[in-house]
Amino acid sequence: MVRRYGPVIFTIRPYAIPVLSLTLDFIAPAAAPAPDRVTLFADVILPLPLPRLYTYRVPYELNDSVVIGGRVIVQFGAKKTLSCIVAAVHETAPKDYQAKYILEFIDDAPVVTQPQLKLFRWMADYYMCTIGEVINAALPSALKLSSESRIQLHPGFSREENEYPLSTQEELIVDALGVVEDGKALTFTEVGDLLGITSFHKVIKSLMHKDVIFLFEHTADKYAPKVVKKVRLAHHFVAEASLEQLFEQLTSKPKQLDVLMKYMQRVPVYQNEHANQAGIEKAYLTSSPHLSASAVNTLIKNGVLEQFDQIVSRFPLENEGAIQMNFSLTEAQTTARDEIMAHFGEKEIALLHGVTGAGKTEIYIDLIRKAMDGGGQVLYLLPEIALTAQIVTRLMRVFGTRLGVYHSKFSDNERVEVWNGVLSGRFQVVVGVRSAVFLPFDNLALIIVDEEHESSYKQYDPAPRYNAREVALMMANFQGAKTLLGSATPAVETYYQAKQGRYGLVSLTKRFGEAGMPEIELVDTRKAREHKTMHNHFTADLLGEVERTLGRQEQVILFQNRRGYAPVVACQDCGWIPKCTNCAVSLSYHKHSHELRCHYCGYHDSMVSKCPACGSRAVKTQGFGTEKIEDDLKIMLPQANIQRMDLDTTRAKNSYQTIIADFEKQATNVLVGTQMVTKGLDFANVSLVGIINADSIIHYPDFRAHERAYQMFVQVSGRAGRKGKKGKVIIQTADPTQVIFDKVIRNDYIEFYNYEIVQRHEHGYPPFMRVIKMTVKHIDQAVGEAAAILLTQELVERLGRAAVLGPEAPYIFRIRNFYLQEITIKLDRAHTVLKQAKQLICEAMDMVKDQKEFRQARLVADVDPM
């Protein structure tokens, strides 16, 4: 089927996005619409950082097909074709430009819902970015279309009648394209490979000038459903008499008979003829060690077996129904659940403040059941992929196929299947990380934000720089859903809102069952070094407790908030330290790959054995990360099975599940990790947690430093002694007198909060003020500093000196070759003040960008930075 709209041809194929051919000027323009016909226009969201929507004309023939939230293909600029989302349909032509036609409609139903569009507009406004940037972040990659330039012989070209001589290179291309009737096309990449050169565009331009070829864009859908090949018995053999006759015919062909017998074992045709219709996967027969693959193919060829394709889910479950996991809430959990429901009768948001190991997950499951029984959807947010491995297993036992999982380790096609599953209603509850807030819910009843304090909910780069907790609250508000925030160590801002009565507050002060809170012990590393009782980076107290724990056949978690082998490599003679070529940081040594790496930009280099500055071979590592802890332990505790969980060991898709599964079944005795091991993991046999270097977490130049440290210490401590075993936590520190340790030891969040809220009020930080951090980036340090000074002046002029702090270079002042300057803006929390202030900030940014010398500067606004 071919549709013509102006200078464009579309070839429609099943299961694919149309092939789009730019045929330049040799196709006659479409006839003008009749005067009585309604002309529709569509405002579309392009996945680009553009300040406004663009308007395109809807081809009259497709007036009834245009859907808000559907994807369309448009031409943007002279050469680009892009897929975008229809945001509005109307009859008003744009005033400033002539609207181009929409080239093609991809969807006949929305892939983005109206509630989503409303949320995306709010995100763009609140987080000071464009809605195009929000759409680009929201849509799975496989729902975006890719466009690649191709060439094809011009319909009017004939070798015999061609009046232009062709060069040898041009002849090669024409020969490769064949004849016009073949319709063969070549990509630009294939043209370069064919000619063996990289500068081939002059050849293409010459062929176009001679009317030998034309250029077009092939736009393909990157999502493909998963298809499996299946086989079934041909229908005329299903009858009992025909089947017995077939067995007789195959008596002399034992290999084929074996295949048939195997099929009959799996598909009871005698008992149920209809079972044959579904068949079985062909791979079940061809991969069987006792069967011949060629015999299977022969049976197919002879018409005994029929081969067919079937679309299947990428998330199969052995049991298609929910597997009821029976559990009952304890008296404390029941009371907490009832209090939450009571708060939901009056408020939209409730905070469940429960100590680690209090059994919050069981309460979540009970609330999810109630929401689903009422026909509503549920979103269950978690801060880390690592947590989903454990929790998904538990939830699958309860909700079966109604449960979807969404995170970045999934392939593009898997993410699209979850997206479509939410749209279709297949998934009534979704467990996911921060990007799950983009899913197309339209009937939300409940959102649960577990470990709501976690900084992992914040997106740092690129835009939108959103906090999934705040987006979840607004999503629930738009859809009339309730939100439950849960944490043992709530964010100061969250607890403040609860204390002010804006959120309901429910507390769980005791652990589930017989488990008690762990004993916490501080160990002074300065004294240990003075007394020479340190073993590498372990005090004798910690190492001895690890050995005793392993001796009792119990497990250990060791927390070190830095990955790699050593954070610094230095020459002992001249002091040379290898630095990143792109960032103002030293390179960390990774022993496994024997290389130096930058943890900011990914730059890596080989490890040096000789100092390039002075030639000395006294190049040694300083400090330690998780890799060195693991390495040292394997030497000191050769009998232990030790595993590491950090960014380096969890890059593969299923690495989280593998590491956690090994630890759960006690194939691993000691788990060494970064922040990943602090967040919500639940292991029955862990009785010891060690914090290797607490001081590196406390002493950080940020107003949230103490809050983060307290949360991290309490959370990682909470992994110990969860199932009745007496837990112990050892914290190694060079300064045991730090105020924060006393609050951690007594597990006194209220006292910590009371101390922290006074500090925030005195110094004007959240929750009393809104903070927006402006970052100026430039490859030239002097130009970047000048741009930051001008931006500060413009901001002071509009907002006042008291609201603007800076500019100043951050601790790490160069990242990815860009020099950084930061400006902090403090604003009143009132909505009207914030909205007006953002407009003034945008004006100031535009003033700076209008200066010719600063046009290459990048100005980044981060609302509510973490």
Automatic annotation (TrEMBL):
<keyword id="KW-0413">Isomerase</keyword>
<feature type="binding site">
    <location>
        <position position="611"/>
    </location>
    <ligand>
        <name>Zn(2+) 1</name>
    </ligand>
</feature>
<dbReference type="Pfam" id="PF18074">
    <property type="entry name" value="PriA_C"/>
</dbReference>
<dbReference type="InterPro" id="IPR027417">
    <property type="entry name" value="P-loop_NTPase"/>
</dbReference>
<dbReference type="InterPro" id="IPR041236">
    <property type="entry name" value="PriA_C"/>
</dbReference>
<keyword id="KW-0235">DNA replication</keyword>
<keyword id="KW-0479">Metal-binding</keyword>
<protein>
    <recommendedName>
        <fullName>Replication restart protein PriA</fullName>
        <ecNumber>5.6.2.4</ecNumber>
    </recommendedName>
</protein>
<feature type="signal peptide">
    <location>
        <begin position="1"/>
        <end position="30"/>
    </location>
</feature>
<keyword id="KW-0732">Signal</keyword>
<dbReference type="InterPro" id="IPR041222">
    <property type="entry name" value="PriA_3primeBD"/>
</dbReference>
<keyword id="KW-0547">Nucleotide-binding</keyword>
<dbReference type="Pfam" id="PF17764">
    <property type="entry name" value="PriA_3primeBD"/>
</dbReference>
<keyword id="KW-0378">Hydrolase</keyword>
<comment type="subunit">
    <text>Component of the replication restart primosome.</text>
</comment>
<feature type="binding site">
    <location>
        <position position="601"/>
    </location>
    <ligand>
        <name>Zn(2+) 2</name>
    </ligand>
</feature>
<keyword id="KW-0067">ATP-binding</keyword>
<dbReference type="InterPro" id="IPR042115">
    <property type="entry name" value="PriA_3primeBD_sf"/>
</dbReference>
<feature type="domain" description="Helicase C-terminal">
    <location>
        <begin position="603"/>
        <end position="773"/>
    </location>
</feature>
<dbReference type="InterPro" id="IPR011545">
    <property type="entry name" value="DEAD/DEAH_box_helicase_dom"/>
</dbReference>
<feature type="binding site">
    <location>
        <position position="598"/>
    </location>
    <ligand>
        <name>Zn(2+) 2</name>
    </ligand>
</feature>
<comment type="function">
    <text>Initiates the restart of stalled replication forks, which reloads the replicative helicase on sites other than the origin of replication. Recognizes and binds to abandoned replication forks and remodels them to uncover a helicase loading site. Promotes assembly of the primosome at these replication forks.</text>
</comment>
<feature type="binding site">
    <location>
        <position position="583"/>
    </location>
    <ligand>
        <name>Zn(2+) 2</name>
    </ligand>
</feature>
<feature type="domain" description="Helicase ATP-binding">
    <location>
        <begin position="341"/>
        <end position="508"/>
    </location>
</feature>
<dbReference type="InterPro" id="IPR005259">
    <property type="entry name" value="PriA"/>
</dbReference>
<comment type="similarity">
    <text>Belongs to the helicase family. PriA subfamily.</text>
</comment>
<feature type="binding site">
    <location>
        <position position="614"/>
    </location>
    <ligand>
        <name>Zn(2+) 1</name>
    </ligand>
</feature>
<dbReference type="InterPro" id="IPR001650">
    <property type="entry name" value="Helicase_C-like"/>
</dbReference>
<keyword id="KW-0862">Zinc</keyword>
<dbReference type="InterPro" id="IPR040498">
    <property type="entry name" value="PriA_CRR"/>
</dbReference>
<keyword id="KW-0238">DNA-binding</keyword>
<dbReference type="Pfam" id="PF18319">
    <property type="entry name" value="Zn_ribbon_PriA"/>
</dbReference>
<keyword id="KW-0347">Helicase</keyword>
<feature type="binding site">
    <location>
        <position position="580"/>
    </location>
    <ligand>
        <name>Zn(2+) 2</name>
    </ligand>
</feature>
<feature type="binding site">
    <location>
        <position position="574"/>
    </location>
    <ligand>
        <name>Zn(2+) 1</name>
    </ligand>
</feature>
<feature type="binding site">
    <location>
        <position position="571"/>
    </location>
    <ligand>
        <name>Zn(2+) 1</name>
    </ligand>
</feature>
<dbReference type="Pfam" id="PF00271">
    <property type="entry name" value="Helicase_C"/>
</dbReference>
<keyword id="KW-0639">Primosome</keyword>
<dbReference type="Pfam" id="PF00270">
    <property type="entry name" value="DEAD"/>
</dbReference>
<dbReference type="InterPro" id="IPR014001">
    <property type="entry name" value="Helicase_ATP-bd"/>
</dbReference>
